[in-house]
Amino acid sequence: QVQLVESGGGLVQPGGSLRLSCAASGSISSIYTMGWYRQAAGKERELVAGINRGGDGNYADSVKGRFTISRENAKNMVSLQMVSLKPEDTAVYFCYAVLPTWGTSPTTYWGQGTQVTVSS
């Protein structure tokens, strides 16, 4: 079993910064992709950013230039540095990790989510 634990959410004023972190633990041989989704109230969950083992990241257009994703493979950790936050970034942010599963398709694991609120 694999567990993902997020940290770093909270309340911040518009224009402020936050850093989210996520640590994966458990039965882990390798992790393909890690990253973050978010879900705002009344909206569908959307991809924010993902990063592969080689460190190549991809971002939603809405966060490009403001968010930076990074990863520490040795620690099975992924982080999301968020700057110039806007009220529309308010959401629950979920960490995810895609792991190989022997004999079948890769499995995606999810964290419990951490609330990010951008408000004055």
Description:
A hairpin with a 6-residue loop joins strand 4 (34-39) and strand 5. The protein is built from no helices and eleven strands. It has strands spanning 2-7, 10-12, 18-26, 34-39, 46-51, 57-59, 67-72, 77-82, 91-101, 104-110, 114-118. The radius of gyration is 14 Å and the shape is elongated. 0% of the residues lie in helices and 57% in strands. The N and C termini lie far apart (40 Å). The protein is mainly beta and 120 residues long. Strands 2, 4, 5, 6, 9, 10 and 11 form a seven-stranded mixed sheet that branches. It has a four-stranded antiparallel sheet with strand order 1-3-8-7, with no helix packed on it.
Overall, the morphology is elongated
Sheet with the most strands? 7 strands, mixed
Total helical segments: 0
Assembly type of the chains comes to single chain
| Spans of at least 5 consecutive residues with low confidence | none
Rg, alpha carbons? 14 Å
Element layout with pairings:
Elements (H helix, E strand, L loop, with lengths): L1 E6 L2 E3 L5 E9 L7 E6 L6 E6 L5 E3 L7 E6 L4 E6 L8 E11 L2 E7 L3 E5 L2
Parallel strand pairs: 2-11
Antiparallel strand pairs: 1-3, 3-8, 4-5, 4-9, 5-6, 7-8, 9-10, 9-11
